[in-house]
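hiii, so i know i said id send this last week but things got crazy w the move. better late than never?? heres the sequnce for the chain we talked about at the cafe, plus the structure i predicted for it. fair warning i was half asleep when i ran it
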Amino acid sequence: MRKLLIFLLIAITVVVSACSQENPGKNDNFVLVQGGPFMNTKSNYKNVTISNFYIGKYEVTQKEWVEVMGSNPSEFKGDNFPVEMVSWYDVVEYCNKRSTKEGLEPYYNIDKNKEDTNNKSDNDNIKWTVTINEGANGYRLPTEAEWEYAAGGGQMSKSYTYSGSNNTDEVAWYWKNAGDKSLSGEWNWPIIENNNTKTKSIGIKKPNELGLYDMSGNVREWCWNWYEDLDSNSGSFRVVKGGGWIGKVTNSEISFRGKFEANGIGPDQGFRVSRGE
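okay and structure toks below
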């Protein structure tokens, strides 16, 4: 009888563990975003319906990056700081490597030897061909629509301008508040630099309606899509969202569409990961 009870406990533990890995929840630093039409009236998307998906509660940290990639490219070091100085190519490779490490099927097919004919950039010297492995359960970048839907509060949206508030300082690290002292006036790089302005540890500011942190400010976040328009299948730039510690206040608005060439890196450029339901 004792052996049977031990066996049952082990079996239950294995099943729970497998389910937890297959469907990450809030305790795993992921939030299940319930799909539906866009409720945030300030969104760029109208008459669009989003399916359920998981998204990271936080931006990917340097600790998480090192555990998968083995080294830390970031300018501002700290285990709980968001990783930065990562290109779009770096992060799709991270998604696949993390998926493999955790026993998931990689979401991307990455061909480093085939130039992507959809990439129109004159400055991108990488141009890997990256396609989607349909039905894979691995980690991926959110689409721009998914990112904006989640940042805007999903079905719980209160139509805030920034992710979780109409007051930037409540939810975002940006050029005025991410340094040694609060700044005022017009954006000025020498003043910003001299103020020791930089990224901050994840999750310090107020979360949005869904419990997501730093979707406004801290670092700009890579999305899957081309920038050129909301439905483009090609272009010179990939979409970045959310603004960052260098950015102006308008860059932190959930509707702001930023752009960066896929091979671009910067000390304000990071990401968060998603997965299908």
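btw The longest helix spans residues 2-22. thought thatd interest u
miss u guys!!
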